[in-house]
Amino acid sequence: MSTNPFQISTNPQVVALIESYPSKASSRLMKLRNLIFETASDIDGLDHLEETLKWGEPSYITKKGSTLRMDWKSKNPDQYALYFSCSTKLVSTFREVFKSDLTYEGNRAVIFNLNAAIPEDKVRVCIKTALIYKRVKDIERLGISS
What we know:
Elements: E1 7-9, H1 12-19, H2 23-41, E2 48-54, E3 57-61, E4 68-72, E5 79-84, H3 90-98, E6 103-105, E7 109-113, H4 120-131, H5 133-136
Parallel strand pairs: 1-2
Antiparallel strand pairs: 2-3, 3-4, 4-5, 5-7, 6-7
């Protein structure tokens, strides 16, 4: 665990939005939110994570990273997603490293089924890599070992 002081700035509108979703979606998104917080708190040199709403979706921002977003959408009620900036190499690198262990949407998202557990170890790597993206963007495979 990091020895640096770590702070999370939260926006109460995020929890209100998540709680407005159907219970299964809400539960899964709260679990993913906690996974983001836990992962961020374990990153050496990361001292602040901001939780806010961007484009109406829960979003997570760091100074040295790329914004992460997550959401559930009624048009695809059996899934929820973790979104990454499509102008980065994040999703293409996850696809190269994790292959079919994760489900992808183009170069912008990792998709999860509401009725299945998420592969936490792999998703933690995705979260960490996004939160430190500016540090690793020039490293082969973003520094992820398979």
